[in-house]
Every structure is written in structure tokens, then in C-alpha cells.
């Protein structure tokens, strides 16, 4: 039996589909948080055993883990949220729920594989190089600079412009939002569990995931969902900063396949792995590609606003080489085709 926590969600449901297609028995536990769901979604395969419940509840965690051979832990609150009032909810759903899950697994003598849905947000700003000082870690961007339209982080030593580089898994971790801090805490909790029990733990650091079943525009949605929601409403998407922020946009089916590999590969792969397409693009390029796929009219052309959000970082793009070498994972989905599919797919209410 494979347990998929958060299995009614955007990524979790695709993991469920792949596991069922491979002939595995699957159990889903999901709290159906109102910020993400109105109810059990129609797309969730009825072949999966279903538990509606909150993993923060020890009784739910105990029930969910009974007889489980392997776990794909996808359950989490995502996105930047509204404000610091969300902090207890993020810590509760991401970290306390993870702690209860691990407690229940430990008490049952769990000896399978644990795959954690982590995120590139644990890196904070990505990897940068200064022409004089080599690889450096820029500090948090200064609001006055952002207000003035100066979005690129400078070298912390000499103040010169930096060149963005791909981020390897052994880069320093520097979470810069509440969500990022809770994802890193999840990694630490699972790693400690692995050390204590010998259970192999794989932390998949997702980059910017897009595709069918994304939720509609909410403060907890990703940028692709926010733009897609704008087009669906006949509005032009608002692109923050100058649109030059570089990200790696990876299709949800690729992300689900990375989970399947981590759960079923002949030998478990321990530690963190970037899950990315390997082809970085700017946020404006994403908006333009989705605009072309949706309707391409002038009225909904992306609008670059110059506004910025606290907690956002400038560039985070990944090296996918460790996942390729250790897990045999490389992204397969083509970006333009994925955008066309995403433009036509309904967004989850």
C-alpha cells in the first residue's frame, strides 16, 4: 500500500494516477483545506482508498499509516499566503502535520521509502557569481532599491552586478518566506526521522510546477495559476518587477514521474534532488507563452507593473543533473505544448 498525503491536490493527484496505473494499491489522505478545495475533486480516481482528515490529528495520522509500505508526502500549504497572520497555519499544516505523520510511522515500525515534496524556495535567492569574488550569497533585496526599479541583487562584497548560475542541491539554504521556512523544517524533520529509523528519505525540491488541476487564483497559488486565472477572466496578468525574474517551469506530469521513480526505483535515493526542466525562463516569458496559448488578444497582453512583493526572490534556476544521475529522471514534457494544454484545462475551484 502506497500512502499519498495531500493526494487530492494538484501534484498529489497526479502521483496517485501514476501509482494506480502501475498497479499499486494507493491510499489518499487529504484535509481538503478550503483555500484549495470545495470538496473531494471529481478527478480523484475512485480506485484509491480515501481518507478525509487532517494529519495534525494523531488519530488521522494513525489511521492513514496503517499497513503502509511507502509514503509520498505531498500535503502542505503552499504559496506566499496573505500576511504573517498565516504563519500558525503554515507551521501547523506543514510542520506539525509532518511531525504527526512521522510519529505514527515510527510507532508502526515503518521500513519503506519516504518521499517528501520539498521546494526550490529553500534556496532563497539562487546561486550567483561575481566577476571578482566568484560564487557569493547576496543578502535580502532592499525595499528602496526595489522601489527604484533596481531588482538585481548586487555582490555583497563590492556591489557589482552578479550573474545568475544554476543551483545544485548542496548550495547553502536560505529560506526567505514563512512558506520556505516550513518547507525547510519539513526536510529537517524527515532527515532526522531517516537517521533515527534507517528509512531512506528522498526530498524532491520542486521548481515552478504547472499543468492541469492547478487551483484558481488565490494567495496560495503559483504564478502560472495566477496568470491563467487572469486570462480566464479576460484580464491582463500583472507581471511584477520587470518580468525578468528567472525560474524553471516544470510540468506536473514530470513531477509526478519523479515521485514514481523515487518510490519504486530498484535502489532508494537518499537526500535532496532538484526536480526541474533544466531550461530556465523569465516570468514574462511564461506570461507571454500563456497569452499566446489562451487567446493572444491585445486586451489581455501581460502588463509589467514594476511592483514587487516581500519574500520574492529574483532568480532561482536549478541544475537537474543529480536527479538524472541518481534517479534517472529528466523532464520530458515540452514547454509550448504544456502551455497549450494548460490554457485549455479547467482550473480547480
The gist of it:
The protein is of the alpha/beta class and about 350 residues long. It has helices at about 10-20, 60-65, 85-105, 145, 180-195, 225-230, 250-265, 285-295, 320-325, 335-345; strands spanning about 1-5, 25-30, 50, 70-75, 115-120, 125-130, 135, 165, 200-205, 210, 240, 245, 250, 270-275, 280, 305.
Question: What's the topology here?
Answer:
Elements: E1 2-5, H1 10-21, E2 26-30, E3 49-52, H2 58-65, E4 70-73, H3 87-107, E5 114-119, E6 127-130, E7 134-136, H4 143-147, E8 163-165, H5 178-197, E9 201-206, E10 208-210, H6 223-232, E11 238-239, E12 246-247, E13 249-251, H7 252-264, E14 271-275, E15 281-282, H8 283-294, E16 303-304, H9 321-327, H10 335-344
Parallel strand pairs: 1-2, 1-4, 2-3, 4-5, 5-9, 9-14, 10-13, 11-16
Antiparallel strand pairs: 6-7, 6-8, 12-15
Helix pairs in contact: 1-7, 2-3, 3-5, 6-8, 8-10
Structural summary, described in words:
This protein has 349 residues and is of the alpha/beta class. It has ten helices and 16 strands.
Amino acid at each position: 500500500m502506497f500512502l499519498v498525503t495531500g493526494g487530492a491536490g494538484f501534484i498529489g493527484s497526479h502521483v496517485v494516477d501514476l501509482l494506480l496505473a502501475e498497479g499499486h494499491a494507493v491510499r489518499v489522505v487529504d484535509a481538503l483545506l478550503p483555500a484549495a478545495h470545495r470538496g473531494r475533486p471529481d478527478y480523484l480516481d475512485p480506485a484509491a482508498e480515501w481518507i478525509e482528515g487532517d494529519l495534525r490529528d494523531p488519530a488521522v495520522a494513525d489511521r492513514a499509516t496503517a499497513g503502509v509500505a511507502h509514503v509520498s508526502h505531498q500535503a502542505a500549504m503552499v504559496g506566499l499566503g496573505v500576511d504573517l497572520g498565516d504563519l500558525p497555519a503554515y507551521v501547523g499544516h506543514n510542520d506539525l502535520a509532518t511531525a504527526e505523520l512521522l510519529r505514527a510511522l515510527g510507532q508502526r515500525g515503518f521500513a519503506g521509502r519516504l518521499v517528501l515534496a520539498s521546494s526550490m524556495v529553500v534556496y532563497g535567492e539562487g546561486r550567483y557569481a561575481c566577476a571578482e569574488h566568484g560564487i557569493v550569497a547576496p543578502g535580502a533585496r532592499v525595499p528602496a532599491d526595489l522601489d527604484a526599479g533596481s531588482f538585481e541583487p548586487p555582490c555583497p562584497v563590492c556591489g557589482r552586478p552578479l550573474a545568475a548560475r544554476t543551483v545544485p542541491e548542496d548550495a547553502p539554504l536560505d529560506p526567505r518566506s514563512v512558506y520556505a521556512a516550513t518547507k525547510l523544517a519539513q526536510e529537517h524533520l524527515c532527515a532526522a526521522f531517516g537517521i533515527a529509523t534507517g528509512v531512506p528519505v528522498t526530498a524532491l525540491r520542486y521548481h515552478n510546477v504547472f499543468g492541469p488541476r492547478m487551483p484558481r487564483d488565490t494567495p496560495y497559488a503559483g504564478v502560472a495559476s495566477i496568470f491563467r486565472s487572469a486570462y480566464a477572466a479576460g484580464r491582463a496578468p500583472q507581471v511584477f518587477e520587470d518580468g525578468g525574474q528567472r525560474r524553471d517551469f516544470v510540468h506536473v506530469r514530470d513531477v509526478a514521474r519523479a515521485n514514481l521513480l523515487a518510490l519504486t526505483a530498484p535502489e532508494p535515493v537518499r537526500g535532496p534532488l532538484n526536480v526541474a526542466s533544466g531550461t530556465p525562463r523569465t516570468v514574462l516569458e511564461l506570461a507571454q507563452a500563456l497569452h499566446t496559448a489562451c487567446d493572444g488578444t491585445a486586451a489581455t497582453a501581460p502588463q509589467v507593473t514594476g511592483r514587487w512583493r516581500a519574500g520574492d526572490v529574483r532568480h532561482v534556476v536549478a541544475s537537474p543533473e543529480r536527479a538524472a544521475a541518481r534517479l534517472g529522471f529528466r523532464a520530458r514534457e515540452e514547454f509550448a505544448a504544456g502551455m497549450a494544454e494548460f490554457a485549455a484545462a479547467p482550473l480547480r475551484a
